[in-house]
């Protein structure tokens, strides 16, 4: 398993960004193969968090070169995001999405609420764990995120809207705020990357060109997106609890605001 010291140092160094990209690729490979309705998964979620399994996956990560990982196999065993916190330390992480367009096109009578069409996330592959079927929920990307301290107390309520960008954005926000102590607004403002497929990584046009070149030298196939593709990197909202109160951030890429009252 990688030593925790491998992740220290300059947050925007090629080494730290490379490790984060490679970790996301490993995680997504497992997610696309294994995550489905809880009652139909071949392995319990806890199996993917077992130390021996995490160790085996981490060993596939080359600290110096980009990889193209496949999924592992554990042993037996149109989105709106809202974050809120009160003066008593209670925090809420909430997300809602109709998915594509106006969702399913079915509106609840008398409410104006359109139902989602997340069923599009099912697989049609007969042998896939996420194959479409009755009484099943599809694998999807509605992920309200929450962090607690070692004692279980609320520490940060946050989320990143944007389809397949969500889990990747969460890692980047957690790495910046929880791992490196960055201000939530600074973390939301910072340039982001998005893993596509294989060794492909797309970065925002504000991404440091020198850092992008360093990642290329490590084998990543870096592509810079145009300024009008900003929505492809999601939209973050964060509230961090501190000893003196809360610090909040709202992503400039989407509509949103950090408010206190």
From TrEMBL:
This chain belongs to which protein, by name? Gamma-glutamyltranspeptidase
UniProt cross-references to PANTHER family, sorted A to Z: GAMMA-GLUTAMYLTRANSPEPTIDASE (AFU_ORTHOLOGUE AFUA_4G13580)
Which Pfam families does its entry note? G_glu_transpept
Keyword Transport in the entry? The reply is no
Q: What is its EC number?
A: 2.3.2.2
Q: Which organism is it from?
A: Salipiger mucosus DSM 16094
Q: Does the keyword Transferase apply?
A: yes
Q: Which domain of life is it from?
A: Bacteria
Give any GO molecular function from the UniProt entry.
Answer: leukotriene C4 gamma-glutamyl transferase activity
Keywords in alphabetical order: Acyltransferase, Transferase
């Amino acid at each position: 398993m990688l030593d925790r010291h491998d992740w220290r140092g300059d947050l925007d160094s090629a080494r730290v960004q490379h490790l984060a990209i490679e970790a996301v690729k490993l995680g997504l490979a497992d997610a696309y193969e294994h995550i489905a309705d809880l009652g139909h998964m071949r392995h319990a979620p806890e199996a993917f968090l077992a130390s021996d399994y995490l160790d085996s996956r981490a060993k596939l990560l080359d600290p110096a070169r980009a990889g193209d990982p496949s999924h592992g196999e554990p042993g037996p065993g149109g989105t709106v995001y809202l974050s809120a916190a009160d003066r008593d330390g209670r925090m809420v992480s909430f997300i809602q999405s109709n998915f594509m367009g106006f969702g399913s096109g079915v509106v609840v009578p008398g409410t104006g609420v359109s139902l989602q069409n997340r069923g599009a996330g099912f697989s049609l592959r007969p042998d896939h764990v996420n194959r479409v079927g009755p009484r099943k929920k599809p694998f999807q990307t509605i992920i309200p995120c929450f962090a607690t301290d070692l004692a279980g107390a609320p520490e940060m309520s946050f989320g990143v809207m944007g389809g397949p960008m969500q889990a990747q954005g969460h890692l980047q926000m957690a790495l910046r705020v929880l791992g490196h102590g960055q201000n939530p607004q600074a973390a939301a403002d910072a340039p982001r990357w998005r893993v596509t497929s294989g060794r492909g990584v797309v970065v925002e046009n504000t991404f440091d060109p020198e850092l992008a070149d360093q990642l290329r030298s490590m084998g990543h196939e870096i592509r810079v997106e145009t300024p009008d593709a900003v929505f492809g990197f999601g939209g973050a909202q964060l509230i961090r609890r501190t000893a003196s109160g809360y610090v909040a951030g709202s992503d400039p890429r989407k509509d949103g605001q950090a408010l206190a009252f």
